Amino acid sequence: MSAGRFQFALSPALQLRTRAVDAARQALVRAARARAVAEATLARAEADLAGSLAADASPRTARQFGGASSHRSSLARAARSARQTADRLRTDETHARRALATALRAQEALVTLRDQAADAHRVRAHRREIAGLDDLTTAGRAARALTSTSTSTS
Question: N or C of the chain: less Cβ packing under 10 Å?
Fold first, then answer.
């Protein structure tokens, strides 16, 4: 008796979930790279600002003082902007991590369903096979019983 091949009815959904996990992984990689670049930019901007403050501690003329102040303001704005960008990209990376975790849970739920369905299919197939063998055994015993009864009465 052939039990048939197991086919998971939700295979298309599982394929979609697998693609969603792959996309979420790629999004996380992109977010992590963008955050790393932003943090490097922030570190450079803060170092430039700190260097400017140290170098311009004692300007000699009012004109030098105004130029240094303007330059420091520009560096401070750049550092502030880099900090905001880095903070936003850290948040984006956190969201990407959560999205990946959600996609993995959804995929794992379908994988678990598939595994349970496959196990149930195997159990049903084994039961059918055992029932078929039991039927054959019972038929063989009945045939032997009839044969022994008919030979003993003759």
Answer: C
